[in-house]
Amino acid sequence: PGKKVLIVYAHQEPKSFNGSLLKIAVEELSKQGCSVTVSDLYAMQFEPRATRNDIVGGLHNSEAFNYGVETWEAYKRGGLSKDLVEEQKKVQEADLLIFQFPLFWFNMPAILKGWMDRVLVQGFAYDLSKVYDGGLLQGKLSLFSFTTGGSKEMFSKEGIGGDIRYVLWPMQHGIMHFCGVKVLEPHICYAPENVSEEKRKEMLAAWTQRLKTLWKEEPIDCSPEWYFK
Description:
NAD(P)H dehydrogenase (quinone) activity, metal ion binding, alpha/beta, 7 helices, zinc, flavoprotein, metal-binding, six-stranded parallel beta sheet
């Protein structure tokens, strides 16, 4: 109770299966007394491109633009664009970050990847010597909740897509763990479009159940073995 949750949601249609998963998370966590904030990226028309517009005022080096350096310098002097400052504030306040999205091409949708690219800047989420267990966002939890087009069999070690954990490596390890955030087991709904209405209801019920005991869960072991063993 009293925990703060940020759900970063990337789907165009509220009536979608992802929309239902979002609705359940908001209701269930609010019921527990958590305060829940949603960044609905499509509805916000969030800008996914990392550009010069992210820096307010003059550049550190106007001769050659280096996004990483410029956003780092801008962060230090409070010169990042308003949309980034707002998202960083939400992240800063959150105990738990939930990312809700459909898997596109073995990856998160571009709009969500753009959120990662632009929001998690150096100085805010990590520093050169402060990464992984030393990342600047320590003390937070994250959870990737997503739907796939392919079946569970396709995303197994023996399947055509390979183990789903390979897909999670860049997201969970390369982004969240890199920034010091602990990672809970992902929540994966396989191919909701290709299953019966009955099965979809079961998937939604399983998400509701999991959320009830979410705060008791232990994070996964943040090591390459979890992904590749």
